[in-house]
Each structure stands twice: as C-alpha cells, then as structure tokens.
Amino acid sequence: MIVGRVPIGATSGPARDRSADHGRAPAPGDAWHDVRVIAAAGSWVRGRPRAVDAAVAVVVLAYTLPIQGAYVPAGLPAGTGVLVSVGLCAPWVVRRSFPLGVFGAVVAVFLVQFAIGMGPVPADVMLFLALYAVAVHRRRAVSVGAAAVLAACALLASARWGDGRVSELLTAAVSVVTVWMWGSMIGIRRAHVATLRERAAALERERDQRDRAAVEAERARIAREIHDIVSHSLSVVVVLARGASASVRTDPDRAVEALAAVEGTGRSALTEMRRMLGVLRDGEPGSPPPGTEAPQPGVAQLAQLVGDARTSGTPVMLTVDGTPGNLPAGTDLAVYRIVQEALTNARRHAGPDLTRVDVHVRIDDDTVRVDVVDDGRGPVDGPAGGHGLAGMRERVATHGGTLHTGAGPGGGFTVSATLPVGEDT
C-alpha cells in the first residue's frame, strides 16, 4: 500500500494551484486519502479483536492445510494432519479471554503431534503466539512457567526433527525469550495504561465530590446570609409597624417617622438581597462585572445596625475595642452577622422585660470576641433552637471558632463567640 506520495523539491512543470484543492474530497492515491484509509482500518481492527484473532487463525490454517499431508507418517488415518492443524489454530480465537487455557490446549496438541511422529508444520507457530498471549494477559510468574514449557517443547522438536546442532538450540531459546519479552512488555504497558486510566477516573470522581461539597457549602452559606437578612429586617419592620400603629392617632409625627424607618429597613434588605442574588447570577449575560457589587457589611457597619435597632425601640449599647480594618473579609462579615442575629433574637424572644442590650466586640491580634447580652426574660427551657442559632453555630464553625449561648447569670440571654483572625481561604 502506498502511504503517501508527496513530491519534494520539484522544480519543473507548471506551478500547481493548491487553492483549487481546498474543499476537494481526497482521491485514491492522495496522501490524506491513504492516511484516512489506514486510520479507518486501524479503528476497525481495534473495535473487533475477536474477528482479528479469528482471521489470524484462518490465515495460518489456510497456509498449513495444503501441505500438512506431507508431514503425516504413513499408516495414520486420513485427516490426522487436518485435525492436528485445526487443533493448533482453532484455540487462538479465544486467546484474549482464556490465554492460559489456549496455551495449554496448543501444547497438548503439539505433544500429540510429537507422539504420533508427525513432522513440524507451519501451524506450530501458534505455540509461540500462545506464549505471547500468556505473557500479555497473565502475571510474570505464570508467563515464565509457560516460557519454560515452550522451551522444553522446542528442545523436543529439535532433538527429534533437527540435527542437534548448538545453533538450532540457541535459535529456539532466543525465539522463546524474544516472544516472552515482547508479550511481557506489551502486558506491562497495558497494565500501566489501565492504572493511569483508573487513577484519572479516581481523580475525576474526587474532583466531582469536591465540586459537590463546594456547591453544598455555598448553598448553606447563601441560605445563612438570606436568613440573617430577611429575619433581621422583618423583625425590625414588625416592631416599627407595631409602634406606628399604636401612635398613628396620638403621635402622628412619630408614626410617620416609624413608617419612614420601615421604608429604609425594607430598602436596605432589598439592597442586600440583590447583592446575594448577584452572587448567584455572577457570570450570566448582563450581570455586573466582578468587584462592582456593594461591599460586604462588617464591623464598620455595626454602628448603623445598632442605630436601626435603636430606631425600632431596642435599647442597644455598642462597644468596639481594636482596629476593624485588620480583620479578613470573611471574619469581618461573620462578626456582623453574629451581632445581627443576636439582636434579632433579643427582639423576638426577650419579651417586654427587655431594657438593655450590650454588644461588645474586642479585636486582638489573633482572635476577635463578640459578646451580646440582653436583660430580657431569657429562655425558659434553655436556648432557643431555631434556625438563627443553628446558622450562627455553622458560621462560627466554618471559621474555626467557638460559640456559647444560654441564660446569663442574672437572667436574660448571652451570645459569646470567639473567632480566630487569619487569612481568608
């Protein structure tokens, strides 16, 4: 077959317009046509291994049958040579599934051939091919044993049909060793490729698991953020609306002021919700470029948070010790959300006895501590077990911190969180 015909260095004859070849289907004899034919044939062969093995057996058998009669001793039944030839070639069809069984069957047929005195025929090459199959598909100890058996068969054949010269023995030994080494190298390469594929599949599964875990963690984070935003804002709106309803007739100015605060709280909640939804839409057409969204709230925004709480009627005192600018963004946001959730719980659960809420944030070199203490009636049967405290615990655990909640020594409710100060990851 002609693989390709590409003239090199042609200097005579008219110049060929190669632009005319663009889009033209390759014709037989062209280089690309031959390459494609070879590639298609290789793909067909790889996809039909059993058919290829059968073809090899048929070719060897077809070459052997016309001449096998010359090697059968006189006096043996007619067809003996045909049976031996078929017995040597037929097992090869299943050599990929049963390589050791094929080798044993071929050796057994050879021993029968040796015992009846039938001379060597071309089909005896299947002994070497069977050794190759064992070396490819079985472990080394098994293939070494098979090579030793084949070497013994070669010695028997040389002793009976050869002249016993050293060159014949060396030729037989080199042939056995060559076939065994060839099959062993192919087997090692295939095992290495299989190992690489298995490792790649394991890495793919591990990556998928990490991706799923990251998605779940991000969902949990967004759920906590939305809960904190909605819960805090709605609790403020409810308190302000109640105050406006109570004073709409007795003190209209105060009612108008409360309704304005309701509007401001709603707008602030909508802004934060849009920011959170912007995170979900990041990368979609029309979404704002990264870095253009509103910054995350932190310790610096606690004063505004406390001011909104005071507007809603919750008496809050804020104390911040340390420099907020030294906190990583994740820790800064966590401090804000912890205080926000603690104030929401105070408004929701402290009852009418609430007269004071103290918020103390202390920022050290390696930790930041948040304490929120109210003097309300406090829990009756222990700390509340709602989603707010659960989300607070998850948030603190995410940053490797500790959280303690419960009734204070003199009543009321206490939230104490300690977060390590480190770089965000």
UniProtKB/TrEMBL annotation:
CDD domains membership: HATPase_UhpB-NarQ-NarX-like
GO CC entries: membrane
**Which protein is depicted?**
histidine kinase
Compositionally biased tracts (Basic and acidic residues):
15-24
**MF annotations from Gene Ontology:** ATP binding; phosphorelay sensor kinase activity; protein dimerization activity
Q: Which residues cross the membrane?
A: 74-93, 100-121, 141-157, 169-188
List each copy of the Histidine kinase/HSP90-like ATPase domain by range.
330-423
Annotated Pfam families:
DUF7134 (PF23539), HATPase_c (PF02518), HisKA_3 (PF07730)
Enzyme nomenclature, EC number: 2.7.13.3
Q: What's in the keyword line of the UniProt record?
A: ATP-binding, Coiled coil, Kinase, Membrane, Nucleotide-binding, Phosphoprotein, Transferase, Transmembrane, Transmembrane helix, Two-component regulatory system
- Give the matching InterPro entries: DUF7134 (IPR055558), HATPase_C_sf (IPR036890), HATPase_dom (IPR003594), Sensor_HK_TwoCompSys (IPR050482), Sig_transdc_His_kin_sub3_dim/P (IPR011712)
Highest taxon above the source species? Bacteria
For the region Disordered, what residue ranges are annotated? 1-28, 403-425
- State the coiled-coil residue ranges: 193-223
Reactions catalysed, as given in the entry: ATP + protein L-histidine = ADP + protein N-phospho-L-histidine
